[in-house]
Amino acid sequence: MTTRPRLLIDNQLPSSNLFEDVADVASFDASELTRDRLVDAEALIVRSVTRVDADLLQGTRVRFVGTATSGTDHIDLGYLNEAGIAFADAKGANAPSVAQYVFACLALHAEKVARAVEELTLGVVGFGHVGSLVGRMAADVGMRVLASDPPLEATGQTGPWASLREVLSESDVVTLHVPLETSGANPTVDLISSAELALMREGAGLINPSRGGVVNEPALCKVLVDSHSRIAAYLDVWIGEPNIDTELAHLCDIATPHIAGYSVESKQRAVHILRDAYKRYIGVRIRTSPPGTRAAAREGSQPFSGREFLINTAKSFPIRALSQEFLAAMAKCDPARAFESCRRKVQGRSESHLPK
Fold first, then answer.
1. What end-to-end distance do the CA atoms of the chain give, in Å?
2. How confident is the model at residue 37 (pLDDT cuts 50, 70, 90)?
């Protein structure tokens, strides 16, 4: 009798039963995961809160790692490659959820500058799964869209391409959707720093739902203090999460604890993507995924108009209240505790109110 592989999955991810036909599944609390817990596990499914590296995996039987995220800065990919451990991410799974966050910020910024959203120019830095969805819906609303993504542009893919300098200087709102890359041909650490912030228009908005570290926080903090709100910052990601810079948070128009991609549906899409990746890894035939899961995430489907999306998001996503609650919580306790507490409160957030 063949022994079934054992798979460990973060207990905050839904639909773990999707793996039960091919593995013995057990869940874990991310705050309590240690190497000892992995002794007899062959596959590991994590969220962004779990650092996966040699310290965690060396000496274990783990041969497959999946992360229910688009970003991979919490994964030591070099070590996985050297150790021969297969890896999969869930790029695209959170695209509708992050787009919802961006459009909520756009609605607030339009109100702040007393202009209609469609009158604004949107600059999108990073035009992958999330950025391209945001760009398509913004264009659908009637916004002028500029995009900067040198690696993607170099492939010959068409897009509303512009240089980063043009995006920053010509946009009323700039939204960031790049991975955190510390090296290579296109590093993104401190992509937006003092020089880049100086290029932005008076009254412009900066939205960052990508990764902390893409924006140089001391530089942004200095601009927000010195310029008396020359620009408005809408930040969802931070350096050193959950121990974030509280001074910067209080200078932002919107400050939230990494919740842009945090919805029930995005987690479900991520688990479907990872389920399919794991089945491919072990050589099991993949049946068609349910509508709105893997296929929708990978293909970036948009079954509704940008105008509908904007109207429904503005009405239904209480981003200002969430920000106020987060800032109030940090005033009462340490930032890390407030960060985790407020994030847990929105773990049941649904995209169900969006138009179908």
1. 47
2. very high
What is the architecture, at CATH level 2, of domain 95-261+311-345? 3-Layer(aba) Sandwich (3.40)
In the chain, CATH 3.40.50.720 sits at 6-89+265-297, 95-261+311-345
Q: What is the mean pLDDT of the chain?
A: 90
Is 241 part of the annotated catalytic residue set?
A: yes
Q: Enter the CATH code of domain 6-89+265-297.
A: 3.40.50.720
Q: Is the pTM of this model over 0.70?
A: yes
How far apart CA 212 and CA 217 sit, in angstroms, is 9
Is residue 353 part of the annotated active site? The answer reads: no
**Tokens linked to 322:** 């969430």
Rounded CA separation 169/146 (Å): 11
Q: Judge contact between 209 and 102, C-beta under 8 A.
A: yes
Q: Which of 196, 241, 265, 351 is catalytic?
A: 241
pLDDT single digits (tens) 184-226: 899 999 999 999 999 999 999 999 999 999 999 999 999 999 8
d(CA 308, CA 311): 5
Task: Give the dihedral sign, CA 106/142/162/300.
Answer: positive
Identify whether 211 is a catalytic site residue: yes
Which among 109, 211, 269, 298 is annotated as catalytic? 211
Can you tell me the mean pLDDT for 127-149?
95
Return the half-sphere exposure (C-beta side, CA atoms, 13 A cut-off) of residue 35: 8
If we measure between CA atoms, which residue out of 222, 292, 274 comes closest to residue 14?
274
In 3D space, the residue among 256, 237, 250, 232 whose CA is nearest the CA of residue 349 turns out to be 256
